[in-house]
UniProtKB/TrEMBL annotation:
It holds the Pfam family DUF6482. It comes from the Bacteria. InterPro entries: DUF6482. This is DUF6482 family protein.
């Protein structure tokens, strides 16, 4: 989903979740939108996922789209490596609400 599609989606829908995804060992962040049907859409540019260098860059981009709330999700490969199911949607275990 490119930026303009994100902006259009936000203007016409109100039931979605924005996730700012950070990966352990990386200083970059990605943005993902999950719609009410459970479809997940990564923010892209020219068909490739956009990588942000800081949370401030993420905040600025999301504000331009009219978004002021998101969840920060820190993905740690430990669960996947040992074969345990990941629980990124559990509200208190692996995501933190952001308001900007």
């Amino acid at each position: 989903m490119d930026f303009q599609a994100l902006k259009d989606f936000v203007a016409h829908h109100d039931n979605f979740e924005i996730r700012v995804i950070g990966h352990a060992g990386s200083r970059f962040y990605q943005v993902e939108l999950e719609d009410v049907e459970g479809g997940r859409h990564m923010l892209t540019r020219a068909g490739k996922p956009i990588l942000f260098r800081s949370l401030e860059d993420v905040y600025n981009e999301l504000r331009r789209a009219g978004i002021h709330r998101a969840y920060l999700v820190q993905q740690v490969p430990h669960d996947e490596v040992i074969g345990r199911e990941t629980h990124y949607q559990d509200p208190l275990t692996s995501r933190m609400p952001l308001v900007f």
